[in-house]
Amino acid sequence: MGCGVDPLLNRYVIIWLLNFSELSNLEGEDDYKEVRENEMKETSQLKAPENDNDVISLKAQVDALKRDLDKTSEASNANINKLKYMMADFDNYRKQMEKHLGSKIETSKADLLLKFLNIKDDFLRAVEMAKQSGSEPVVIEGLEGISRNFDNVLNSEGVLEIETVSTPFDPNIHDALGFSDRDDLPENTVTTEIRKGYLLGNKVLRPALVEISKKIVKNIVNDRENIEKETEN
Q1: How does the average pLDDT of the chain come out, rounded?
Q2: Are 194 and 211 spatial neighbours (Cβ–Cβ below 8 Å)?
């Protein structure tokens, strides 16, 4: 503090604190009166400021206490604000880490499922070869049961097949490997599925490989000339 606290002021404060402590333990009105009488006796024994200098000194000490209190309050508020900013920064960091961790988990899951899908493709080719080679029906049935188990596992992980045949070509989920000349379908309609595609949630796990329709462009002039020649003959 800027200056020492006057002993007289200290004594006032100590007496008040002691009396306050005693008041909290009072059990009746007589005890309260006794404490008040003691307080008045002790206070009457204190010497009042003898002159204006003592009053000015006490006032200066009180002003110094107020200034120190204001400084302490400002420092406390500043520390509270710093703590709030630190808590906000930590919350943002926590959210970023959770998002990063979730993205990493999804990527690892997608990589594992892609390997699983490649195994499924090989297995389905083996089933087709078994059918073509005339394997026993019980063997074919067992292999198809395993294939259904593959599908159940994929469905449980949120993997869905991409629709292909007879749907409009979508470059976001389809990869076109060729064209089919078709007059009976709108242009850019999927006509053949070469390899199945899959979605994992709303993301493409593997695009479908397809062929799409293409309109046959006829040369009207040549057709007309051919018709005229056939008519002349």
Answers
A1: 80
A2: yes
CATH number of the domain within which 224 lies = 2.30.22.10
String of b and e for 40-77 (b: at least 16 CB within 10 Å)? eeeeeeeeeeeeeeeeebbeebeeeeeeeeeeeeeeee
Residue 185 resides in a domain? yes
Phi then psi dihedrals of residue 178, to 5 deg: -170, 180
- ∠ CA 17-20-23, nearest 5°, is 155
The pLDDT score that the predictor gives to residue 17 is: 53
CA–CA gap between residue 136 and residue 127 (Å, rounded): 12
Phi, psi of 90 (to 5 degrees): -65, -40
The separation between CA 69 and the C-alpha centre of its own chain, rounded to angstroms, equals 44
List the beta bridge partners of residue 204: 199
Domains of the chain: total: 2
Residue 148 near residue 174 (C-beta atoms within 8 A):
no
The pLDDT confidence band at residue 233, using thresholds 50, 70 and 90, is: low
DSSP summary character for residue 166: T
Identify the three-state secondary structure at position 219: coil
Q: Is residue 119 part of a domain?
A: no
Using the predicted structure, report yes or no on whether residue 116 has a pLDDT greater than 80: yes
- List, in order, residues 6 or more apart from 226 with CB less than 8 Å away: none
Higher pLDDT, 206 or 214: 206
* Structural domain boundaries, residue 17: 7-87
Return d(Cα 217, Cα 111) in angstroms, integer: 43
